Amino acid sequence: MPVYRDEAVVLRTHKLGEADRIVTMLTRQHGKVRAVAKGVRRTASKFGARLEPFMVADVQLYEGRSLDIVTQAESIGSYGALISGDYASYTAASAMVETADKLTEAEGSLQQYLLLVGALRSLSRKEHGASLTLDSYLLRALSMAGWAPSFQGCARCGAIGEHSALVVQVGGIVCDDCAAPGSPRLDKATILLLGSLLAGDWDQAESMPEQTRNQANGVVAAYTQWHLGRGLRSLEHVSR
């Protein structure tokens, strides 16, 4: 039975039997992997704590017919405890791993792996507000998956200008000619914030007032829910 090693971030876990768990991981080289971690629910387990959600580990696995088997796990990023101790960080991280799980349904992506690990690391260190970190992650993750939003030119016709109508189905901000009747309008500050979150301009993003951040939150949530095609349960609990 082939053995392989990889770096992995734990997305979710499920109980299996009395002492085992099924661990769903996004790996650096092998995409998304579902594997059985035997005995990890026992208090004497050597690596149970390293295979909790939000943790990043160097894992060794046996390749199985339907599920692989984890045989070793060495911690690389112990972000789980730090994130779980803060409600805002925990709910943001939960939305992140659920998004990564859905976006990598068919195959993995090194870019998606690195983006998720970086976002979880940032959350654990409280480098930025949890809500801003989540919104930035969601916009970037969707962009990598082929749904890059447009916050400058018209998302439909490409016309350059100061547009304000939002049509998430089309891909972002559109001009007046392309806007459907009743399309919501965004102010300049919100559009600037959304662009900053997508580009990773944290100085600009963190300078925005709470009202602007709240409006951007709603835009990102709507954009994410539409393009994933199904609801993110974790978003309902995110601390905004």
Characterise this structure.
By secondary structure, this protein is α+β, with helices and mostly antiparallel strands. It has two domains: 3-80, Nucleic acid-binding proteins (OB fold (Dihydrolipoamide Acetyltransferase, E2P), Beta Barrel); 128-234, no CATH class. It is 37% helix and 21% strand. The chain is built from seven helices and seven strands. The strands form two sheets. The chain has a five-stranded mixed barrel. Strands 6-7 form a two-stranded antiparallel ribbon. Strand 1 and strand 2 form a beta hairpin. Helix 2 packs antiparallel against helix 3 (110-125) and helix 4 runs parallel beside helix 7 (210-228). The longest helix has 19 residues, at 210-228.
- Note the overall shape: elongated
Give the number of helices.
7
Number of strands: 7
The total domain count is 2
Unreliable runs:
none
CA distance, first residue to last residue: 47 Å
SS-derived structural category: alpha+beta
- The overall pLDDT average reads 93
* Strand arrangement in the largest pleated sheet: 1-2-3-5-4
The oligomerization state is: single chain
The residue fraction in helices comes out at 25-40%
Task: Give the percentage of residues in beta strands.
Answer: 15-25%
Order of helices and strands: EEEEEHHHHEEHHH
What's the story with the biggest beta sheet? 5 strands, mixed, barrel
Rg, Å, rounded: 20 Å
Family: Belongs to the RecO family.
Protein name: DNA repair protein RecO
Domain DNA replication/recombination mediator RecO N-terminal: 1-79
GO biological process, one term: DNA recombination
